[in-house]
């Protein structure tokens, strides 16, 4: 907004009422803001295709050529497992469970060796 001289940006928690009044007066009475607003308005009114024109063109295209395989998303050809990535989730879950099991085994083995080692007494 400020970069294009279309308005001012204020943080309501950091600005006092007097500062708000000064900024509002500046935006209302400075001609550069008015000129830029008119320029942007003209740009929006003269854009190449309005939303209505785009809708008409897409509808005419669909009516003329019918459903097109080239415009159809690939997700229509996927089964439920592929679409929801269930196969990848199963592999990830299996890898996570395997990692946890191996880690727990290693920890228990280390604890067992450290705590329950029997000392051999020599005579």
Mind explaining what this structure looks like?
By secondary structure, this protein is an all-alpha fold. The chain has helices at 17-29, 31-45, 51-65, 80-83, 86-115. 63% of the residues lie in helices and 0% in strands. It starts with 16 loop residues before the first helix and ends in an 8-residue tail after the last helix. The longest helix is centred in the last third of the chain and has 30 residues, at 86-115. The mean pLDDT is 86. It is built from five helices and no strands.
Describe, in short, the structure shown:
It contains five helices and no strands. It has helices at 17-29, 31-45, 51-65, 80-83, 86-115. The termini are far apart.
Topology summary:
Elements lengths: L16 H13 L1 H15 L5 H15 L14 H4 L2 H30 L8
Reported for the largest beta sheet, the result is: none
> pLDDT under 50 segments (min length 5)?
none
Question: What is the assembly state of the chains in this entry?
Answer: single chain
What is the terminal-to-terminal distance?
91 Å
The proportion of strand residues reads under 5%
Q: H/E element string? A: HHHHH
As a percent range, the share of helical residues equals 55-70%
User: Based on CA inertia axes, which overall geometry fits?
Assistant: flat
Which structural category do the helix and sheet elements fall into?
mainly alpha
How many individual helices? Answer: 5
Mean pLDDT: 86
Give the C-alpha Rg: 34 Å
Question: How many β-strands, per DSSP?
Answer: 0
């Amino acid at each position: 907004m400020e970069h294009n001289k279309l308005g001012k940006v204020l943080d309501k928690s950091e600005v006092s009422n007097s500062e708000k009044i000064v900024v509002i007066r500046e935006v209302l009475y400075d001609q550069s803001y008015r000129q830029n607003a008119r320029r942007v308005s003209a740009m929006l009114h003269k854009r190449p295709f309005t939303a209505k024109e785009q809708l008409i063109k897409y509808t005419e295209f669909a009516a003329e050529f019918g459903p097109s395989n080239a415009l159809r998303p690939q997700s229509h050809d996927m089964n439920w497992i592929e679409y929801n990535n269930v196969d990848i989730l199963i592999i990830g879950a299996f890898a996570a469970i395997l990692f946890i099991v191996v880690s727990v085994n290693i920890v228990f083995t280390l604890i067992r060796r450290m705590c329950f080692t029997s000392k051999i007494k020599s005579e």
